[in-house]
Amino acid sequence: xxxxxxSTAFARLGNSFTDPKNAKLAMAKRxxxxxxxxxxxxxxxxxxxxxxxxxxxxxxxxxIEKENLxxxxxxxxxxxxxxxxxxxxxxxxxxxxxxxxxxxxxxxxSSDDTALMTYxxxxxxxxxxxxxxxxxxxxxxxxxxxxxxxxxxxxSRYFEYYFRNIPHIIRKNxxxxxxxxxxxxxxxxxxxxxxxxxxxGLGCRNVTQILFPKHLTPSYFxxxxxxxxxxxxxxxxxxxxxxxxxxxxxxxxxxxxxxxLLLKEDWKIYSPVGCINYAYYATEAExxxxxxxxxxxxxxxxxxxxxxxxxxxxGQAQKPTLSDYADGVNTIEFCRSVK
Length: 339
What we know:
By secondary structure, the chain is an alpha/beta fold. The chain folds into 2 domains: 170 residues, Aldehyde Dehydrogenase, Chain A, domain 1 (3-Layer(aba) Sandwich), CATH 3.40.605.10; 128 residues, 3-Layer(aba) Sandwich (Aldehyde Dehydrogenase, Chain A, domain 2), CATH 3.40.309.10. It has 13 helices and 11 strands. The strands form 2 sheets. It has a 6-stranded mixed β-sheet, sandwiched between helices. It has a 5-stranded parallel β-sheet with strand order 3-2-1-4-5, sandwiched between helices. Helix 1 runs antiparallel to helix 3, helix 1 packs across helix 4 and helix 5 runs parallel beside helix 13.
């Protein structure tokens, strides 16, 4: 197999995600919804459509060229992948990165996202024997040469210790923040709602904190998002929202409530499902300090403002490109370094 053939295989996989006659995928979607109640039809379809849009041959070729990939590893190594299951297909990018490097992927599936990832592995394995030889689902990651693991802050400590003697990428909990300037249109503020609510706030690219300039109030955002009220139709989201509202009231914590999202003034990055933290800034220097201090907790910064730090366009947080690496760590570069 060469890179042109591999690109075609990836694009073929992407096209299968939106094929209405794909009975195998339809079954995987039903199983996924049963094994993880957060994976409703809307979330699964959003993930599949996003990957279908991403896995176009032109985009894949651009990714390969950008990483200057010309040949596969001469001696394939065993790279373990511990996959997360917080949002559908969250482990797919790591899988593609290992395959592009020419190594073997030893895959530890998340119990929360087994059906969809199994579909992906089966599809790719049927495309070419070369791919089948490099895709192995395992229960234990024994005798691997390197590791890519995604988990919680607690599990990361276990990974760090257990795999301390081999090259590794170990990801912890992260969330995203939004910085508003007061120049956003109503439609852009509505799109920011997608950055907050897509996957019900469970992804590392979901916005969990909004920073306002001092002349604005949270109603600037609140007033633009009433149509996102439908998130309350999801039982688990509604339970989280109701629980935290009761907690705020019981503890007499000041907060804002629009009947489906709670806002609390807090400089912390993380906020639980159904809640958003907010704070006020005065200068760009203050923003830089906040981002720098919390660098290990922030996945991306969403804003239309022109700042001296990287940002993601409003409404695009859940649509990363192939070159948008989790935690800013280049997975391709890591895989190529494994000898």
